[in-house]
Each structure stands twice: as C-alpha cells, then as structure tokens.
Design a protein that fits this description.
With 96 residues, the chain is α+β, with helices and mostly antiparallel strands. A hairpin with a 4-residue loop joins strand 2 and strand 3. The longest helix is centred in the C-terminal third of the chain and has 11 residues. The radius of gyration is 19 Å and the shape is elongated. Belongs to the universal ribosomal protein uS19 family. It comes from Candidatus Falkowbacteria bacterium CG10_big_fil_rev_8_21_14_0_10_39_9. This is Small ribosomal subunit protein uS19.
C-alpha cells in the first residue's frame, strides 16, 4: 500500500459529493482529472469520465474495482505493436 494506514485511502471529496448528489441509475458522466482517487463502494454503478491526458475516458464502476485507483482503468498510452523487420514482413503476408 502506497499510503500510510493511519491516513487511510485518498478519496477526492468533491468527486464523492458529486456522486452522492446523483440519483442511483443516473447515466450521466462525472468528469474528473483526479486519477489518483481510490474507488469506493459509493461509486459503484456510475460512469466516471477519467482524463487520460487527452480526453475523458468513460469508466463504468463495478464491484470488483473497489480499492483500485481511477487511473488504472483509463490508459494514457496507445499500444501500436512491436516494430521491426520481421513484424513488418508478417503484416504484409497476413494482408495477402
């Protein structure tokens, strides 16, 4: 655990207030730039738009996500594949 047990998990209070103001089953996105905030049981069932540096990625929170951080579900890098001559040759033969 990266944070002291006596301090407890980091939860953004403004984000928590916005979630509590919504009705259960509301489909609207809550935009946030706070990727370090820990997912709590109050967030389950809501869609949170987590910023990945370019745009807000919608993250639908389910029970298995509790205890993880919001940033874990919004990747910041796009994987394009491994390069090299061999990979290029395989790609061209696969197209034929």
């Amino acid at each position: 655990m990266g944070r002291s047990l006596k301090k407890g998990p980091y939860i953004n209070e403004r984000l928590l207030k916005k979630i509590q103001a919504l009705k259960p089953g509301d489909k609207s996105d809550i935009k946030t730039w706070d990727r370090a905030s820990v997912i709590t049981p109050e967030m389950v069932g809501f869609t949170i738009g987590v910023h990945n540096g370019k745009q807000h990625t919608p993250v639908y929170v389910v029970e298995n996500m509790i205890g993880h951080r919001l940033g874990e579900f919004a990747p910041t890098k796009k994987f394009l594949g491994h390069g090299g001559k061999m990979a290029k040759d395989q790609a061209t033969t696969a197209k034929k």
